[in-house]
UniProtKB/TrEMBL annotation:
Signal peptide: 1-23
Keywords linked to the UniProt accession: Signal
UniProt protein name: DUF2092 domain-containing protein
The keyword Signal is assigned to this record: yes
Keyword Signal in record: yes
Cross-referenced InterPro entries: DUF2092, LolA/LolB/LppX
Pfam families: DUF2092 (PF09865)
Lineage of producing organism: Bacteria, Pseudomonadati, Pseudomonadota, Alphaproteobacteria, Rhodobacterales
Superkingdom to which the source organism belongs: Bacteria
């Protein structure tokens, strides 16, 4: 038997022996306690910042699962200020909100938009998701889980033990909702921040995933301009025109519209 066959046999044997992790009542209580500690900690912070690596999978019409990678940073001051920088390789975007006005810049497309939107961060997150179908990256991490399902009722929750993310010891939790599976790695210790977060969409063929890995987590004062000026090279447009012209996919991707 070749080394390749041995490897395939070992992988198959491992998959047969590794069943779904069960959860006793005590284990579920521990998992919910860990999740609660994370949400309480993140929600209690007046200001925070972090860098992130993002990986977003899409499924093509011929059944191929592809991943799009991005990097970015977040600076947040409660209750109503945030700035999110995101770089994808095909576009650089900048979202800023100062409690009164949402400012958006797409430097590659040369677009800039201002939109009056007085309110809190929660209002901003809800409006972007519900009115414009533009979920804010890492919204669940920013609010402690209240906007995407982490704190919603789930069919089950499991404590999968300890994992390591970027050298940080983390408690690994798995949650199952009606349409998606969630995994989250929560830093152990006095600062239980989310180190990594994965959503698996079960109702989409091939179950694509969305993942964010957090780096350089910082609780405390942040330095950021939450009301940036329009870049000299950008054209100011209405928010609807900005969203229409902003690139969500690389330029060589073709979006097919269902008829």
């Amino acid at each position: 038997m070749s080394n390749s066959s041995l490897l395939k046999t070992a992988v198959l044997a491992g998959s047969l022996l590794f069943g779904t992790a069960g959860a006793t009542v005590g284990e579920e209580a521990d998992a919910r306690k860990i999740l609660g500690s994370m949400t309480e900690y993140v929600s209690s912070l007046d200001a925070l910042s972090f860098d992130f690596e993002e990986y977003h999978e899409i499924v093509t019409t011929d059944g191929e699962r592809l991943g799009l990678a991005a990097s970015g940073s977040v600076a947040l001051v409660r209750p109503d200020k945030i700035r999110v920088l995101r770089r994808t390789g095909y576009t650089d975007t900048d979202l800023a909100f100062d409690g009164q006005t949402l400012s958006l810049t797409d430097s590659d497309a040369g677009l800039f938009a201002r939109h009056a939107l007085p309110g809190t961060l929660d209002h901003l997150i809800d409006t972007l998701r519900d009115d414009f179908a533009k979920p804010l990256p890492a919204a669940d991490l920013l609010t402690g889980g209240g906007h995407g399902g982490l704190t919603a009722p789930t069919a089950e929750i499991k404590d999968l033990g300890v994992g390591v993310v970027s050298g940080m010891l983390c408690d690994h939790l798995a949650l199952r909702g009606e349409e998606a599976d969630w995994q989250i790695w929560v830093a152990q210790g006095d600062t239980p921040y989310p180190c990594m977060f994965i959503i698996t969409s079960r109702n989409i063929p091939l179950a694509p995933q969305y993942r964010i890995e957090v780096h350089k987590w910082q609780a405390g004062p942040v330095e950021a301009d939450f009301a940036p000026e329009k870049p000299a090279a950008a054209t100011e447009v209405a928010l609807a025109d900005y969203l229409k012209g902003a690139r969500n996919l690389p330029p060589n991707f073709i979006v097919e519209v269902e008829k």
